[in-house]
Amino acid sequence: MKAKKDIVSVALRFAVWLAAIVMVASLVGIVVYILVKGIPHISLSLFEWNYTTDNVSLMPALINTLSMTVLALLFAVPLGIGAAIYLTEYASRGNMLVKVVRVTAETLSGIPSIVYGLFGSLFFVKALHMGLSMISGALTLVIMILPLIMRTTEEALVAVPDSYREGSFGLGAGRLRTVMRVVLPSAVPGILSGVILGIGRIVGESAALIFTAGTVAEVADSIFDSSRTLAVHMYAISGEGLYIDKTYATAVVLLVLVIVINALSSFAAKKLERR
Amino acid sequence: MSRFREKTMHIVFLACACFSIAAVVLICVFLFSNGFSAMLKIGVTDFIFGTEWRPSNNIFGIFPMIIGSLYVTAGALLVGVPVGLLCAVFMARFCPKPIYKLLRPAVNLMAGIPSVVYGFFGLVVIVPFVRDNIGGRGMSVLAASLLLGLMILPTVINVSESALRAVPNSYYEGGLALGATHERSVFFTVLPAAKNGIFAAVVLGLGRAIGETMAVMMVAGNQPLIPDSVTDGVRTLTTNIVMEMGYSTDLHREALIATAVVLFVFIMIINVSFSLLKRSDSK
Prior knowledge:
The structure holds two protein chains of two kinds.
Chain A: H1 7-38, H2 59-90, H3 96-110, H4 113-127, H5 134-158, H6 162-170, H7 175-186, H8 188-204, H9 207-210, H10 230-240, H11 244-274
Helix pairs in contact in A: 1-11, 2-5, 2-8, 2-10, 3-5, 4-5, 5-8, 6-7, 8-11, 10-11
Chain B: H1 2-42, H2 44-49, E1 53-54, E2 59-60, H3 63-94, H4 97-112, H5 115-133, H6 141-165, H7 169-177, H8 182-193, H9 195-211, H10 214-219, H11 237-244, H12 250-282
Antiparallel strand pairs in B: 1-2
């Protein structure tokens, strides 16, 4: 038997539905607004190889985004996975170091991206003399996404049943072989979903990159060249006021990228759950 | 041979784990050493409580920006927390399964949208809306609060949803057994039981709001003055840094780094209270 609905209950039920509708409506509003305004302005000239002030092509920025992502992941993924392996597979319980690492990783994930940008420009650009360059930007991003990759990898490793490890030890494998051949492969989907989330952060990042990778709108020839990613490109052209249509179109490309990245990440996560 | 490999890899993994410690230490050293020297040169009270920011005259007072950050963050919480919390309650306790399957990716996508895209949306939609319907020039505390309120929604929703889900079902059932309706049971037994987790959600949302840079810069107007009303323009700590860092030199540059130190201290306070709340929740 159900209790009789009183006015408070009805009001509360109304409130939660309303909140959910507001949330969905604002998301749909943003996405649809950008798509509707932007899609008509997507043209082939937007994807031309060279950037000129007449044609603010986003192609160079898109290529830079890609190489920046690869470069940052090249450092962040091994570091993050290695750290997670140490925390879950090697460190003994109640290890003081583990606590410190956890606290610092938590601290890192709370630091705003502008502070990373400032640090990057002080440390990589100035102190290490790397200049405004792709590598300065990428290394800044490495520190930024490291906690994310560490945390998701850790969760994925912890989720691997202990019987796998025991089985491997029982067959005479050492710790390293157990980790590399047994534990890590079964945690791949979880790690992948974290890495893809990291890619999302990199693609969307702007504040941390403006003062580390700079804003040159051409394809970088080497990792020591300054270059802007798509998000920085969008910020740069939105501020000039001349290219509002192009900004909409760039926003569409950025948004589509983010939607695809998100879909991939949840697909990988689901794959983990199914097993 | 394999002993040797075991030992080396052990050390490699250990080094990876220590990397985040090194990163935090480096960030602290570089920010604080540059920032404190600027603060000492300007004078700590003049810097923090000075109400004028005129870099060309070597007057560096960031009080308007501190107040600006607080206003905008408070506004964002006012918008984001009620909606986010109710959304989390909906997702944890009210939502039919098929709808949940749509809502979860929606929240994830909302968290993934880049801040420039949010900022641009704010610039072309929220700013004109505020200008035409409420007054002022549009770029204002109000516009920034609305936009940030949206941006912190996913953070608030995720953390409070998992807090709500962590409450044992017996609480809810106990409520029902005493004759409460589903709604009353959720709101008056489950919700209070999750209060630490919910506070943690608010604190984390606060951290996101105070640290957001690009989106705020695009909608807030950025005048370094203490705003008199919600329709006045405002400059936050983060935007102060990003606007002037490009062309600043010498003391001006150091003053911007010192601004980041103040921001960093705020963030540290927020982080510490977040982890304290989380810890007290898990007990």
